What does this fold into?
Amino acid sequence: MRAVGLIVLLVILLAAVFFSMANREVAELGLWPLDIRIGVPLFAPILGGVVLGFLVGWTGCWLKDRHVRRQLRGSMRECMASAEEIDRLKAELKAAQSDQGTGRDIAA
It folds into this structure.
């Protein structure tokens, strides 16, 4: 699955490089309240908008799923506590069996 993700990322990066090479004309950006004009390659604001959109979407998904991560952390704590209890009970059973000297299961 990781290889598929890397291949998709490579294709997207290649598309961005080809897009940048095809759109090297200078575009003039103006900052509205100020009377400042900046000349930048045309691909810069377009790719910048795509990256900004990706980051806003990623942040939104991350914030939306915070309750799932909280539940997962609680479940992990519960699982670790259960594993510790199982280990403790196994040790108690082993001690009880060695005290009896029979080596048989007490519960049977």
Remarks:
- The longest helix spans residues 66-100.
- The CA atoms of residues 52 and 58 lie 10 Å apart.
- The beta strands are 26-31, 36-41.
- The chain has a mean pLDDT of 89.
